[in-house]
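WARN no homologs supplied; continuing
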Amino acid sequence: MSVGADTQTLCWILTDGTVGMRIQCLGLADAAGLTPVIKRIHPSWLLRALPVAGTLPGVAATAGGDPIAEPWPDVVISCGRRTAGAALAVRRRAGGRPFLAHIQDPRIDPRHFDMLIVPEHDPARGDNVVTTLGALNPQAPEKLAEAAKPWLTEVADLPRPLIAVNVGGSNKRYEFSADAVARFVAELRGLSQSSGGSLLVACSRRTDEATRKALTQGLADLPGVVWTGRGENPYLAFLHLCDALVVTSDSVNMASEACATGKPVHVATIEPETGRLAAFHERLRADGYTRPFAGHLESWTYEPLRETSRVGAILAERLAARMADRPEQSLR
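OK structure emitted
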């Protein structure tokens, strides 16, 4: 039995609006052949703090946002600890009907989910746990090509190679200090001059104003584009158009998306990584996906990182098995 967009399988994506988590859910749904309904929710403080409370009678799935009501879905896809409890509450209200596919370790027993998808550097393990190298994403090659169309004329006359520079920002465990950013800008200047190419710089939502200003002023006289937030984000376009990439090491998502291109990915350590982030980057280097950024381009090849399609196929297979066991679930 097939499960996908050509069936009547009803899929919900639960999101609290966090973009990086929503795109992982969308990528998984697409790879499994599902056409999801996005449910924008506001989980209560109780479910955010204690996701397992979603299994208890009387605990609402959301404190606001889109309605959570019949018809109940066949599958719920969620991501991050903040929506894990809401997914459990939806299944409880739906009488156990939905298959729960949750991305990222919510730090509760994996048995609460039908499929738990976690980065391999996280500790969760079990028969229903699928580990991944990096984050899931919906950036299929054809989507990147479509996103690049408006930028074709913009880059047509720029000297090659075209080097995408994907810049993140500070988070709880990683700081973009002024000195580190100044060093990074100097290394980018050296890269442009030594390669003879052009820099296609895309800042993220987390890039602070001081970093944006340092990039804009420090690279203004060099060929390329520095996008700091005005107009349409060219991030996906630059992934397609570039010949090589430089990615700051603060973001698992950005590194994973870069490695899905199959192009040389140079990881810039703005500040030293620690913990699980350090382990993630060590694995990427060991497997030949990335190399440290040292102010110049290197050339190498590898098989693109295709974790989203692999995990999507596993989800489709497990959904098909579930519906074969419960044929009444596929009838609407």
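Residues 307-325 form the longest helix (19 residues).
OK
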